Amino acid sequence: MARSLVQSKIAKEIQDASGAASEKDDLQPGHMRLYSYYSPSLSAGLYGIEVRQTVTAIAGDDLPEKAQTLPIMNQTVAKPGTTPVIVPQEFNVVAPQFSLDSKLINTYYPPDGHQDEGRVLPHIVFNDPHVPWFREAGTLNWETQPVDGPQERRGRNFVPWLALMVFEPDELKVEQPAAALLKLDQIPSYNSASLPANGSFSMTVGQYLSLISSRPYYEEGYQGDAAATLTALKNSTDKLNVIFPTKSQLADVFAGPGSNLDPLKAQKYLAHVRHINTIGFPDAGVEEEGFFSVVVSSMTGNQKELIPSTHVVHLVSIEHFDTTFTAKPDPKSTPPVLGSTWFYPDDVNSDRIGIVSLFSWTYTCIPDAISFYETMQVIGATAQPLRPPQKTLDNLWATAKNPNPQNPAAAPIAQKLYDRLNSGYTIARWRTATGEETTAFNRGPLVPMNVQEVPGPAAGASAAKPWPGLSMTGKDYTVFDKSIGMMDTTYSGAWSLGKLMAISDSAFNQALMRFRSSIWEAAASYTRMQANNVTAAGSVLSNVKRAFLAARAVTPEKFSGPVIRINKPVMQGVTTSMDDPSITEEFQEAIQAKVATFASIGKGTTAPLYNGFDGAPGNNSDWEILLNWVHDIMYLGTIPSHVLFPEPSHLQSHNDSPIMPGQPTYHPEALRWFHIDHAWIDCFLDGALSCANHLEPEYDFTRLCVKDIFNKFLSTPIGNTSILPPVPRYGFILRSAVVKSTPDIRLVVTCWKLQKAADGTPSWVQDPDRDPLVRHTKMDDFTILSLVDCSPEEIHTVTLAQPPHQQRFSIGCEPSYDPKTGLVTAVAADIKLKELFTDASQVPVPTPQDPEVPVWSELPEEQQIPMSQQTLFYNDATRCIDAAAIATAANSTLNSWASDPTYPTKPYDDAVANSTVFGLEMNDPSYQLRFTNPAPKTFEPFPTWTRKIYTGAAPTPPPSAITVNAASKTLARGPIVANILSKTGTVSIEAIPSVKRQRPAQQGPSLYQAIQLAPPDPTRPTALPPRVMLNSMRAVPRALPAAHMALARPPTPGPFNPWAPIGTPQFELLVHPDYRPAPPRPIHDPNNNVANDVFSPFDYIPTQTTSLFDLVFSIRRRVNDNTDLQLQSITIEIPVSDGSDKKNADGYIREPLLEAGDYSGTGVHMCSNPRFVPAIFSGTATPIGSDKWDNKPVVGIRLVPRTGQATGTLPLVADLKSKDAGFRLSEPRIKPIVDHSTSAMIAALNSQGNPTNVQKVIGRCMIRMSEQYGPTHTDTVSWCTVLKADTGDHDPWGNQI
Predict the structure, then answer these.
(1) Under a CB-based contact definition with an 8 Å cutoff, are residues 45 and 134 in contact?
(2) Rounded to whole angstroms, how far apart are CA atoms 527 and 542?
């Protein structure tokens, strides 16, 4: 429900106003409480309950020796006279063992498809604090109970039963020979030709325990009475997933040297619980608290790779790993012995072992990732109102103010278009009532500026007819802009959408029909009785007794006068039709009264209105549905996203990539502010409430009454509080990859308050009691919508912060490089500890003079852990950290730091290293993005505002309102200052004043003017967030700057080059799989030596996929200018294998792209431009004078333009007809690499951010594109280099292709 946050807040206010006690904890918003473990009262297993009861009967003289006792218990008696045997009542505590419910998982990092540094320690967060301790990890003492505590207290750490492992995909591949040794090939899910991308195989629990020959020694946990449970498990058909790492790798991670099990014991430091106040989280309520358990991996990604590499993270069960490493062949004859290197069982020659995978995901490890801090910098710098990117508007403004003498008419058109786009409009296709198709202006309910609540005429225009309070068809809300000659369908479209949404919602539509019918029936009945002078049945019955008593009192002595036995006939007709003009006013009054009665609680004219917040039931259940539905719409509930944001460019931070000029990009990192257009909401509601109107076809008076009673609801305080039902007025949309990686991003909005000192001096301060946030929800994995019930002028700060349970864990590392090759040779730990406090009085407290005091500062350098002591913290060969060594050293170092005599008391004092301290020290700093709004310049209180649905009486527009067609106006306010705040200090994004220009109707800087970053360090590349595809919302690798894609060696002239272009090609070709966007164009060698071209790391076609995919041939104009060329056709020739692919005399092999034989896919189709007709053919290549190409088989695609010219040609001019000619070749069969001697230069950056191109062995095939023109021009030829890699691939959702 859209109003869940508001309902929680008002429920709290009602409780506080009633004086009821609150169960509020002392955990403040933004705070957390940490626990080393949170074990359940009973871990999983078989338990028994023994109950004994003794009944004692005292004799009458109360002598104890005469008392009689009767023991009662669950017992059995073997023989008469023998001692009874107690029979316990057995029960099982069930907990997950071989699978995990996905609902238990809150989030995990890095998320699927995300890119991050190799030093990151992946982690997973659970919604239940008990999950890591559901089960006992083994049978040894340190696995069944908490450890590391003083004798008089319970232990401080507890080993969990699960852990995270990080693999490279090849480490989990189980080929056929190994599968046979493991008996894995007997599992139906095993297919050697199509191995799973994440390395896990699905099977039943019974198959795993009975069939797989190498697995953990589960038998140790099912000795004695529990053996029957193991037998049942071996027959179980429940599903589980199993991975098969090597035994040596598993021993490196968990067994340790000599199988001392130290790494397994160290898992106690890798799991802890965080108790968090969830105020400000998306879709959270008020004063809600969450307990989240966190499990951190002891393994990092591969830090030695200089190019992106895929990693798979598995949440594995480590149950009974202890006896797996240490058990002997016959554990029943001798107890397990430590120090053995033996694996259970010992008769398997396989070097792999099957362990249970409870959950898995994949991410990409890259050398230099974009961090939360850098992404937030970009978001803060590009924040703007919800309209096209500022660069687009600036270009329009320049055209409007600097007219071209050769085209003077363009300036006024640009000015009018600028006004519309600046107001948040877009141009949409529109079909008139008579069928003609044209264009119209349109926008949704979210606008970049405050607009009139009742739309009026444009500034300077003549008075127009009043805005209608209701419409029967929606046409009354269509606006014609005479200055441009285009229709504005914003409000008529809102009316039509409201009617469509209401009809689609069967519950609302049925409730509205029942409500209308009930109102009409009750009002009509009352009106007829009043019009016809009919006494109500209740009044008649109440007068019966009096009438009888009066008749009995009549006697002949007392009676005088005429006797009338029959009433005189009435000559006046009976009124039955509600269309009778004489009763119209009375009927409307009856409708108003009945609507008010149905919308109230109880009877009487003073009965309170139903509000849906205080829990009191209303008089009419249908009205409850109507009120909640209408109020939800004011919170944008159920309004589709494509209506809220009709123009995708409004959510882009820019149109063109600053890295690869000219390359299209769809940048996701955007924060957009907006006002809510209440007139749009009113039109939407008018259309929705027009449904089920089968009784008032000419004038829907009932609809107006419903609006009036809803306005009364909006202006009536709720319950015993002074709070009016909140209605959002302003908000923002955040669309970022940060939302994917940090879904519970916390939002805090504060407001200004006018305060007067004792001497009457006014000042503006932050209002501690005002919380304007009314909705904070996730629209999808990448988007958060937030609404507030105040104007932007009232806002003091808007803060976006990382939640405590979703901060990244990583280990500080220092790589060593080979001076010759530049490759990473070793990685050593370089951990910097933060200050932690066990004495709350020593914690730095923010003050008005220093509001951003650093709470999580690093220890002084001289007090950090010495580098000589950190040599064992990280093993770059196994990619494992030594959690025990780190936790112990951190605790010792913090105690040493706290022993400084300058402190009055020790700020940190703890003798036991524990998982909470380890987790805090391995956490990255906690960052937050804060927008600060300057205080108002005057000391006038903010005007009060009450939302009202427009019913026909136009209220006076507020001073800040603008008309629909007016130019941009904003209040004269100071600029917003955006700061990235860290617990370690404050990093400011400096606001650089933009170039001042005199824009129409603008008196000062905009409230949310663009924030620009200070000039970057020229020695370091500018950090930009990752690029994201709109259709899949998945981060894909960014293209490297052109300056970083340097040629491998200087070009040198050579002999005849068959791959040199002929003429001046107008088009260029790029080829890519359909599940990835077009790659950036390669940096071409000036001498056309393809061996010297530099390619993007993701510019390749995979050949070892398990399923077919489409190839997209992206053909675009190089320069979209006017030419005198007449295009006849475009021909693409794709090399096909001839079955042998032999070398020529020079040892050259023409690399084919497609398999031998005729193309057997489903055809070729244009991607978006229907002005070309594609045709496919096969044959031999067009001769070029080289045996590297001539007489070789090819598959050709010819694109012929549709044209009305007699010549059958298409003129190449600066329009959109020929700008894009891309097509899709469906499901071709890609030929694996034939010539393994070829390579290509792949662009990369080293750790210092300098270009380092990597030579990589890869298939390189050439595709010929020829452009045919009319007889007056020569045809042109260009070549496209397509790289092939003998690997598999994944789609944007992480699924294997």
Answers:
(1) no
(2) 21
